[in-house]
Amino acid sequence: MIGAGGVELEARGESARFLAEVLDGLGAPRKALSPKWLYDARGSALYELICQQPEYYPTRTELALLDLHADEIAEAVGPDALVFEYGAGSGRKTVRLLAALRRPAAYLPVDISPDALAQTAQALSRRFPRLVVRPVVADFTVGVALPDLDLPCARRLAFFPGSTIGNFDPPEAVSLLRRMAREAGPGGALLVGVDLPKDEGTLLRAYDDAHGVTAAFDLNLLARINRELAGDFMLSRFRHRAAWDARLSRIEMHLESHEAQLVHVAGAPFAFRAGETIHTESSYKWEPRAFDALAAIAGWRLDRTWTDERAWFSVRLYGR
Ligand code: AVI
């Protein structure tokens, strides 16, 4: 956890990292940027809007699973758990979990954005006045040390909903799950939302909705680069494209250049060919067994699973 001055320093380090990664990513033979940069204030608001689109099934399906099986999940986790969550989000799923758990000992949300974190922490403190809530400003993709709260708890539970694990390539996913295992400690648990493979049409519609919200979310990355890194992207010269890679079992989001053009970021020139893309996100859809094998490499053994009737999404509980 860091104080007000620390938050400022962290923000400065953050924008230096953003610049370095953008220069690197646009300079690569296959242009790519990490999806974590999609989430500035506007990007986060657009993501919340995506979650409400009829085509975007993961949020609705996972919320329904958490509602339907709240008691079983609480029973399987056990009482007096300390819950930590990487990526605070809107807190809607967390409210469901914390309301179901018996006597949760504390809640530690970890997020890169101090504003989003403060909002979520405040909302949860209001909703659960007796719960100890300790927000941690940090980039969980590069590692984070949770503060020692010196609180008695029966078990440490890593909560990672939303199929966010799908946004990591398998080796990165393993290291993230391994870090969670380390933080959870012996006897700890992991409750994770995993999106499952399904027909291509459903997937493409979910990642390129009719109202163009996902397109706006993707293109907002260029607007962010223009604003924060003195870029001169003309957004009208790019379009959002979703593609399903069956071999890798992942949806990819790309920003495709309509034409040959030259773009600058912080004074550095980047040439685009017509049709060339920036790969902005992968969203892996895991076969349940394959995901269990991945989790096992990171030190987790499967305890219980909950899946919807269509087998589109799975909430999985692991122990160690
Ligand atoms: C946050 N993450 C799990 C979302 C996903 O489905 O991969 C991000 C997203 N990208 C486009 N739509 C939603």
Description of the molecule:
The protein is of the alpha/beta class and 320 residues long. 39% of the residues lie in helices and 24% in strands. The longest helix is centred in the N-terminal third of the chain and has 24 residues, at 4-27. It starts with a helix and ends with a strand. 38% of the residues are buried. Residues 50, 58, 162-164, 166-167, 207, 214, 281, 283 line the site of N,N-dimethyl-L-histidine. Keywords: Methyltransferase, Transferase.
Task: List the topology elements.
Blueprint (H helix, E strand, L loop, with lengths): L3 H24 L13 H10 L6 H12 L1 H8 L3 E6 L5 H9 L5 E6 L2 H14 L4 E2 L2 E2 L17 E6 L9 H15 L4 E7 L4 H7 L6 H17 L8 E8 L4 E8 L3 E5 L2 E5 L4 E8 L3 H10 L3 E7 L5 E7 L1
Parallel strand pairs: 1-2, 1-5, 2-3, 2-4, 5-6
Antiparallel strand pairs: 6-13, 7-8, 8-11, 9-10, 12-13
The protein binds N,N-dimethyl-L-histidine.
N,N-dimethyl-L-histidine binds next to strand 11.
Give the structure's gist in a few sentences.
The chain is an alpha/beta fold and 320 residues long.
Topology pattern, helix = H, strand = E? HHHHEHEHEEEHEHHEEEEEHEE
Q: What form results from the Cα inertia axes?
A: globular
Low-confidence stretches: none
* Percentage of residues in helical conformation: 25-40%
What fraction of the residues are assigned to beta strands by DSSP?
15-25%
Strand-pairing-aware structural class: alpha/beta
Number of strands: 13
Q: State the major sheet.
A: 8 strands, mixed
User: Rg, please?
Assistant: 20 Å
How many angstroms separate the termini?
Answer: 26 Å
